[in-house]
Amino acid sequence: MKPVIAPVKNVSATQIAFSTLFQRALGVPGMALIHGPSGFGKTTTTTYLYNQVNGIYVSARAHDTTSSITSRIVEELGAQPKYRISKNVDYIIEQMSMYERPLFIDEADYLMNDTRMLDTIRDLYDGTETPVILIGMDQIARRISAHKQFYNRISEWVEFKPADLEDVQIMADYLLEDSIKVEPELLDHLRQSTNGEMRRITIGLTKIEALAFANELDLITLDDWGDQPFHGLRSLA
């Protein structure tokens, strides 16, 4: 398998949102929300993109407080956290503004449990107007709408959806070794078996590639695969 990002629809939509966010007109708010069920590729996509823009990445945790999350952001910036939250906030704002580094917060659902954390993230954006991107599960869009001051600062919304057959074909074309081809019927079987979850599709493609190598096949068909599950591997008879 090749270590690349396949340009499926979710990835393309995120790239367009990022481009719009970073080139937005004066007065357009600069926050984004990327949301969808687990396994649809949100973290993989945003990790790839934040590396392209020298972003700051943190993942919120179930027991986070304003102090703990701002301390981790300071650590991501390569500095020692301050004793006071206000000092951490000032330092983050300074660094985001000076170097135009956008902030990415994964597992942002946990922010919804603490109004003070939400207000602090809003302060970071208001103090810099540098993009802030939240990544969360499928219910976060509904939950965030209850926080109007935060909600009104989000201009880009990207919902990650299940992969369709075209997406699975793109993933196979980009991820598998060039010598290996997969019959469309098998790819559609993979899509249906995984409910379009990107993570499980990637695992399935890994197994298909392993089967091809083990049996020296250039083309893998649905008959070759048989009825084996995609989390296992059975060699051809």
From TrEMBL:
It comes from the Bacteria. GO terms for molecular function: ATP hydrolysis activity. InterPro entries: AAA_22, ExeA_AAA_ATPase_DNA-bind, P-loop_NTPase. The lineage of its organism: Bacteria, Pseudomonadati, Pseudomonadota, Gammaproteobacteria, Vibrionales. Transmembrane segments: none annotated. Residues 30-143 form the ORC1/DEAH AAA+ ATPase domain. Pfam families: AAA_22. This is DNA transposition protein.
